[in-house]
């Protein structure tokens, strides 16, 4: 017969193992990958108020700008220049507490100059309900192709209201990459069959916060609750790298040719085999809608879509996930085992970067 202590050893061993795994996850999950080599700007060097200047707050050193939403209005900023291709980035901290119905957006557009045939690249955060994972989407329009939106939606693997994280848009003549920190989450490679659907006209860079109660969270079921106002989105580490142009003339100088070539030679302009593993990990675990797999909407996938069997098996014909877990239920309902496995997986991928 075994003593009570001997009988408890397997349980103690299991607890010790789980504690070690948990410790590894905590210490490595949030270890930053190698940062991009970029130059950050002050607000005055890079942006101007777009609307509701009274809801825009600049830090004393002018390197952080806070955009507020309250009952009076949302707010927004716009880059002081237009760019013909570029790398645009900001470290953003989302509003905290109850943020359902609120959209925080970081995007490029030229709709103010090309109203009927504008281009646009979007990163939009879709508000949040406490206890659930934050959701966000990326989208692309070219030459006014608003009826052919190319949106993908994802769940965050962290709480973006706790700390600032870097969100970036790379736009070159040959490819577009969306980044969260240094992890590429989506790449669009230019295809000749896309024609004008590939953004090609000079664009400004925008950051906004606004009330989107009608659609942003749970299809509009969750509205903005102004008892928690003001809602504050903080932007810092502002990066605008590209060729400054006149959007009307669109006469590209040799300097723009040189700038585009230099941009395409940067480390963030290529998805390497190592970072592609991270992108695949992210998309398989956290993407919950893709237009490329929405065969009801697009019986023939748009030409830039690269259909991966590992992704296709995740989705129904509506482009939505087969599994409720992939759709992103409450974080509280997930088991400890699933959380630990996801954390370990992320640790492995970030360690490889």
Automatic annotation (TrEMBL):
It comes from Sesamum indicum. InterPro entries: Beta-glucanase-like, Beta-glucanase/XTH, ConA-like_dom_sf, GH16_AS, XET_C, XTH. It is found in: Secreted, Cell wall; Secreted, Extracellular space, Apoplast. Contains at least one intrachain disulfide bond essential for its enzymatic activity. GO terms for biological process: cell wall biogenesis; cell wall organization; xyloglucan metabolic process. The lineage of its organism: Eukaryota, Viridiplantae, Streptophyta, Embryophyta, Tracheophyta. Residues 1-35 form the signal peptide. Residues 311-353 are annotated as: Disordered. This is Xyloglucan endotransglucosylase/hydrolase. The active site is at residues 120, 124. Its EC number is 2.4.1.207. Keywords: Apoplast, Cell wall, Cell wall biogenesis/degradation, Disulfide bond, Glycoprotein, Glycosidase, Hydrolase, Secreted, Signal, Transferase. It holds the Pfam family XET_C. It is an enzyme of class 2 (transferase). Residues 24-235 form the GH16 domain. Catalyzes xyloglucan endohydrolysis (XEH) and/or endotransglycosylation (XET). Cleaves and religates xyloglucan polymers, an essential constituent of the primary cell wall, and thereby participates in cell wall construction of growing tissues. Residues 321-341 have a biased composition (Basic residues). It comes from the Eukaryota. One of its GO terms (cellular component) is apoplast. GO terms for molecular function: hydrolase activity, hydrolyzing O-glycosyl compounds; xyloglucan:xyloglucosyl transferase activity. Belongs to the glycosyl hydrolase 16 family.
